[in-house]
Amino acid sequence: MTGTPEDDPDASLMPRIAEGDPLAYRALVDRHADRLLAFAERLVGDRASAEDVVQDAYLAVWRTAARWTPAAKVSTWLYRIARNAALDRLRRRRPTVDPEMVTLIDPADGPERGLSRSQTSAAVRRAIDALPERQRAAIVLVHYERRSGSEAADILGVSVEALESLLARGRRALRAALEGRRADLIGGEP
Question: What's the pLDDT tens digit per position in 103-122?
């Protein structure tokens, strides 16, 4: 995917960031910080580590902005940097966060349904965490971050065909891991 100034709103910021313009840098951070943090959190499993990943990614952007070329969109480049920072962090520490500590409860639900959702969320998180890194990143980029196939492939540094293969294997693994939770996942009663 090419990132020309006409189709990439961030492209005009990069030369300014390369020259040390803090306003351009702030604009880039403001535009992508929330989504990049969500992406990193899904990869590393906890918010504190994800914040460190995003900080490392933005620091790398500041330091290497002069090397960016419009061969890819700035956001694609930024996600690739964040993915690499997340991988570095995961390699330094294993195992990941305890999924039993993750709680996602809708206050409008009764206690039983909230508990079921929390357990289902934990099961999904465990299943995603158990995927090999490249499958996990492909699933997160396409299904959580809503990246197109070509953009996700660019971020992962693979062909679109390889991305499709990663997604297929990841989906199969998730289906197998979550087989007993099908009713919970599609909104039925457990």
Answer: 444 455 454 544 456 677 77
Tens-place pLDDT, residues 151-166 = 889 888 899 899 999 9
Distance CA 123, CA 120 (A): 5
Rounded Cα distance between 3 and 119, Å, is: 41
SS3 84: helix
Q: What is the pTM for the complete model shown?
A: 0.63
Q: How many helices (H) and strands (E) does the chain have?
A: 9, 0
Nearby residues of 6 by Cβ (< 8 Å), 6 or more positions away: none
**Cβ within 8 Å of residue 133, ≥6 positions away:** 87, 90
The DSSP-derived string for 106-146 is -TTS-HHHHHHHHHHHHHHHHHHHHS-HHHHHHHIIIIIS-
Residues 176, 24: Cα–Cα separation, whole Å = 46
Residue partners of 63: CB distance under 8 A and separation at least 6:
none
